[in-house]
Structure formats: C-alpha cells, structure tokens
Amino acid sequence: MNEPRLMNERRPLRDIIPQDDLVLLTCSEMAAADSAAIAAGTPGTELMEAAGAAVAGTVVERYRRQPVVVLCGPGNNGGDGFVVARRLHAAGWPVRLALLGSLAALKGDAARAAHLWKRPVESISAHLLDGRPLVIDALFGAGLTRPVEGAAADILARVEALGLPVVAVDVPTGLHGDTGAVLGRSIKAALTVTFFRPKPGHFSVEGRRLCGEIRVADIGIPEAVLGGIRPKLWKNDPRLWATLLRRDDVDDHKYKRGHLTVLGGASSTGAARLAALAGRRIGAGLVSIAAPRSALAVYQGAEPGNLVVESDGDEAFAQLLADERRNAVLIGPGSGRNERTRQAALAALKADRATVLDADAVTVFADRPSALFDAVSGPVLMTPHAGEFARLFPDLVAMPSKVERARAAARRSGATILLKGPDTVVAAPDGRAIINVHASPALATAGSGDVLAGIAGGLMAQGMAPLAAGAAGAWIHGEAAYRFGRAGMIAEDLIDCLPEALGAAMN
Ligand SMILES: NC(=O)C1=CN([C@@H]2O[C@H](COP(=O)(O)OP(=O)(O)OC[C@H]3O[C@@H](n4cnc5c(N)ncnc54)[C@H](O)[C@@H]3O)[C@@H](O)[C@H]2O)[C@H](O)CC1
Ligand SMILES: [K+]
C-alpha cells in the first residue's frame, strides 16, 4: 500500500484565485484608476458626469420625488454633487444646492460642473433642512484628510438630529476611504453610491454602520486599468477559493486529505476537542489530538472519531512530527501559555508543517516575539483577536487601517495573519489581503475561535495555502453562524452547521 508516500509529496499549496470584480481599491489606487481612464481617452469631466448621473439615477430609482438638498464640498466630491443636483432638477425634482466654501475656489472638473448648474448656490445653513428634504452628502469623499469640523460638522449634526434620509456620494463625509475610521464626525447614510470599485473603508466596522446599502456604479473606467494598478486587496467571497475545496481526485481517500494534529491542553480540554471536530467536519482526512498523559482519558472518552495520542513533555510533540504524514498542525486552543505550547509551536515550525497558531500559541511568545518570527519559514497562519495581536505586535496597534496593521504583522512575522473581528482581515506576507464581513455577531461566543482555528487547520491539512485557508475559514465560519440563524448559539452548534456552510461555499 503506497499511501504514506502520497502524504510525503510536498504538493504546491493551493492558493486563492484573484477575482477582479472583488477587488477593493484605496483612495490613491482609485485616483490612479481615474488617471488611467483619462489617459485612455475618457475626460475627467465625463467621469464626474457619469458619477453624478449614477447617484441621481439611483436616487430616482430608490426614492419617490421629494425636496432634495445637495450639500457640496470644495473638491470633486462636491463636483459630483453639482452633477447630481442638475440631473435631479432636470428630472423635475425640487432641488436646493449649498456649497461649503466659495464658487471661485472650485477647480477643474468641479468648477466645470458648478458652471453647468444654472440655479442658486446657497451657503451651508440649517435653514436648508426646513421641510425635511432628502440630503445628498457630497461634502467630502476620497479626499478627506483631516477631521470634519465647522460648518460641515454642524450641518451633519443637524441632519442627524432631524433624522433626515441621506444618500452619500462615494463615502459618507467623515469616513476615511482607506482606513474606515471616522475623522471628526460623520453621517449615517441609508445608501452610498461609490464608483468602479469599493474602498477598504466601506467595509470597516464604522464603514458598514455609516454607509447603509452600498451601490458600486460603473462610470466608464475600463477594467483594464486594474492591470496597471495590480491591486492586492479583495472582499472575501467563495469565488476566491471555492474551487480549492473541490475534491476532484477520483481516488480521494483519507490519507490524501491530510492529517491535522491538534495540541491538546491539560486543563481546558474542550477547546482542542472543538477545534479537532471542526477540522474533521471541514474534511481533513485524519485529525488527532496530542494529549498530555494527565488528560488522556478525557480526550479518549470525548469523541471516538478523534484519534488521541499521548504527548507529554517539551520534546514529545517534536517526536510526533517525525511522522511526515502529520502534514498540518494546530496549536493554541486551550493548550495553555506554557513551555509545552511554546516548544510544540517551535517544533511544528522547525518541521516545516502547515501550522495554525491560535490563542495561547500566539500569546506565549508575547515576551519575545522574535523567537517565533525567526522560526517561521513555511506555511503558517496566525489567528489572533485584537488583544492577542496587541501582545505580539504592540507597536502596530496604533495604525488606523486594520488591513495595514495585518499586512505589517504578516511582513514582520513571515506568517499569514487572520486578524479577527466583525471585519476580519486575512493578510499574507506578500501583501495580498482579504477583508471578510461575512460574519454574524453570534460568533462572539466562547469556543467560536477554536472552531475557526480548527476549520483553517483542516483546510491546510487538505493542502490549502494559509491565505486561502484563512479566507475560506472565516467565510465558512460566518456562514455556519448564519445557517444556525437563531439566538442561543454555542460553538458546538457551529460544528453541526459546517456541512451546510461548506455546501453553500461550493455552490
Ligand atoms: N473615479 C472616481 O473615484 C471619481 C471620483 N470622483 C469624486 O472625487 C472625489 C475626490 O475628490 P477630491 O477633490 O480628491 O477630494 P474631496 O472632494 O473628497 O475633498 C475636497 C478637499 O477638501 C479638503 N479637505 C479634506 N478633508 C477636509 C476637512 N476635514 N475639512 C475641510 N477640508 C477638507 C482637501 O483639500 C480635499 O482635497 C471622490 O470622493 C469622488 O466623489 C470624481 O468626481 C469622479 C471619478
Ligand atoms: K460624501
């Protein structure tokens, strides 16, 4: 029987398959797309006209005709606003337009758009809101560089106090397009119309709270411009990795689907057991728990499907990994912040195994992160939550962008970082990153992280590269919670919903 050989061949790990329509562009990449479109023959004025037309068209589509006030800022976001106002007026809507700053200060495309508006330009004042109009927020967009204050902040506060409906142009004013942070004050929109591709900021926790429904309008920027930009950020979706889940080998069998070894702790055995179950449910061929002698009986009595192997003492785990069929390792859930965990993690990295380091396996290195980073050379996925991240990368916490925080940590550690949260970011050392918002608040339950780590470990056992395993794991984890779909979910429920979630990912 030649199975063991199959386990030894180091097949290339299967990695994500980039999808252009899932790309997210930063403000500067968006400006580059603009410039490329203009260089390819589409005047900036046409882009602005198309942007304003897209907003006006969406408003007409979504709202009954009613009084509208368009709040325009001093730049091209405001320029878009002039186009929106002109088009809504032409469609018979009662429109008022107010400008922050002076007409004379407008430049370029915005000045041209303002020139085409032949009706009054008012100044920003609370009286604009008499009659409870629909508000078009064209104050600031991709050019926001500092906190919103003064008249702009005042009018937004007034809009909010009156509870008026808001449609945001590109991004709600005050939301930073790249970091998704709020500078000064912002405004909650019912609908945000952005252009060509969304921005990372649209999907931050604040971004999702403030943008409302997000519409991405085609404004005539050719897809080909992406070739020159070479974006490295995508919104998570099964289309990035679902084909990697397919089991096309006709002679598929458990040895080909990898062997995930989970380090079991002595005290809280539930975490490792949950992770092991998740690894099996997601399709790993074999999953075993390396248990200390003192907890052997507990693990053996728990789930018959989990192989349990004794692994006591610091060197024991390294000896286990002498068996190359153990091609993937998960350390952390419930394993304790102790020397055994540290040594097991270093043994897995030294043995160049596909390794997931979660929870205790991350924080046990907090005193000397370099000891961990220096040992990373192969496929490693770290899955910290914000607190664990801060212990390992304290100096990165101040970075305003979660994507950039995760990317910096990945570059520094050499591992792929899955930085958990309602907006989980998975970032590889080469800069590629994926934002996952396919998640439910119900996931904030004890043990949920153990399940996620087990899913990712099970996928890496089957040959998925860390970025793909992290993205697929985060999405499937979220889908399982949606599938459970009712209050009172506990981590074990996620395990039972994994087959449906996996099925949803593959359809
Ligand atoms: N392809 C596209 O994405 C297109 C985008 N368009 C629109 O253009 C804006 C970006 O325009 P820009 O002039 O660069 O910046 P803003 O209009 O957002 O800001 C104007 C200006 O304001 C200054 N500023 C920044 N922050 C503040 C602040 N807190 N207080 C006061 N002043 C501030 C800063 O100098 C900015 O330059 C984009 O959002 C789209 O709506 C194109 O119209 C069409 C193609
Ligand atoms: K805006």
UniProtKB/TrEMBL annotation:
EC numbers: 4.2.1.136, 5.1.99.6
Binding-site residues, (6S)-NADPHX: 76-80, 141-147, 170, 271, 334, 385, 450
Domain YjeF C-terminal: 237-505
Record-listed AMP binding positions: 420-424, 449
PROSITE patterns linked to this entry: YJEF_C_3, YJEF_N
Single GO BP term: metabolite repair
Keywords on record: ATP-binding, Isomerase, Lyase, Metal-binding, Multifunctional enzyme, NAD, NADP, Nucleotide-binding, Potassium
Reactions mediated catalytically: (6R)-NADHX = (6S)-NADHX; (6R)-NADPHX = (6S)-NADPHX; (6S)-NADPHX + ADP = AMP + phosphate + NADPH + H(+); (6S)-NADHX + ADP = AMP + phosphate + NADH + H(+)
Textual note on the cofactor: Binds 1 potassium ion per subunit.
Highest taxon listed in the record's lineage: Bacteria
InterPro entries (alphabetical): CARKD (IPR000631), Nnr (IPR030677), Ribokinase-like (IPR029056), YjeF_N_dom (IPR004443), YjeF_N_dom_sf (IPR036652)
GO molecular function, one term: ADP-dependent NAD(P)H-hydrate dehydratase activity
NCBIfam families: yjeF_cterm, yjeF_nterm
Function: Catalyzes the dehydration of the S-form of NAD(P)HX at the expense of ADP, which is converted to AMP. Together with NAD(P)HX epimerase, which catalyzes the epimerization of the S- and R-forms, the enzyme allows the repair of both epimers of NAD(P)HX, a damaged form of NAD(P)H that is a result of enzymatic or heat-dependent hydration. Bifunctional enzyme that catalyzes the epimerization of the S- and R-forms of NAD(P)HX and the dehydration of the S-form of NAD(P)HX at the expense of ADP, which is converted to AMP. This allows the repair of both epimers of NAD(P)HX, a damaged form of NAD(P)H that is a result of enzymatic or heat-dependent hydration.
Family according to the record: In the N-terminal section; belongs to the NnrE/AIBP family.
Quaternary state and interactors: Homotetramer.
Protein name per its UniProtKB record: Bifunctional NAD(P)H-hydrate repair enzyme
Organism: Enhydrobacter aerosaccus
